[in-house]
Amino acid sequence: MGLFLFFVRLISSAIMYVGGATHLLVEAVYHGIRPPYRLGSIIEEIDRIGVRSLTVVNVIAIFTGMVLALQTALALSRFGAKSFIGVIVALSLVREIGPVFTAIMVGGRVGSGITAEIGTMKVTEQIDAIRVMGANPIKQLVVPKVVATVLTLPMLTLVAILLGILGGLLISMLELQVNPHYYFTSILDNVTFPDVASGVGKTFFFGVIISIIGCHQGMMTTGGTEGVGRSTTTTVVVVSILILVSDFFLTKLFTLL
User: Could you write out the DSSP letters of every residue in 124-179?
Assistant: First the structure.
């Protein structure tokens, strides 16, 4: 009986959490399409979320491409098929590794940052002060972060894919003596627009997940500075899980389309 009640409470909490996040998303869309538009805040968030994430994304992308090329070479060498290394590296990065790795890294950095910022404002009653002044905290705080994350994550993913392919080229040249011209030609001949569209298309959904969970968790923060720390940890965990789970369903959806 105790185990049954535990699962009931767990499911109820999950349903309430999803309901709260969905309600926040609906409010963000509603206030986002209504003027006035906070373009200055959106540009500022694009700089904070996108531009300042470039360094970590670039480093991870390059070494991911290098490791992927090295591991692929070890596997293909058994079958004498090293010439296909460029295609395998590119398709892996374009379809799955690029979008998912970028989303998880940006989700950890940006999602926790959003939660810490909004959570601190929540526990210090600054959000209540915004309401008292007649402003809407959803439009002022949530909408710019959601728009900026949705816009910048696909761009970061494209940069990560390109750098990952270059990292794979570096290993292919140094370790396997693959001709750079053949490397890029094989990629251009085999990687199609639907491959790129399916990979980059996922990142719009990942951007929504990262920004909404970060904002929602921040809005739910209680318990002072300790509560802010708990909320940021929860954001990283929830965002990572949702990205991996949603990636499966999005992959199935794009495959059907």
Answer: TTHHHHHHHTT--HIIIIIHHHHHHHHHHHHHHHHHHHHHHHHHHHHHHHHHH---
Supply 214's token pair: 């970060």
Q: Where are the alpha helices (DSSP H) in 53-125?
A: 54-76, 85-92, 98-106, 112-123
Q: Is there a domain that residue 13 lies in?
A: no
- Domain assignment of residue 251, given as a range: 37-256
- Other beta carbons within 10 angstroms of residue 70's beta carbon come to 18
pTM, two decimal places: 0.90
- CB count within 10 Å of CB 149 equals 29
Q: Does residue 44 lie in a domain region?
A: yes
Whether 15 maps to a domain, the answer reads: no
Helix (H/G/I), strand (E/B), else coil: 223:
coil
Of residues 98, 72, 86, the one with CA closest to residue 153: 98
* pLDDT tens column, 127-177: 888 888 888 889 989 999 999 999 999 999 999 999 999 999 898 888 777
Number of domains comprising the chain:
1
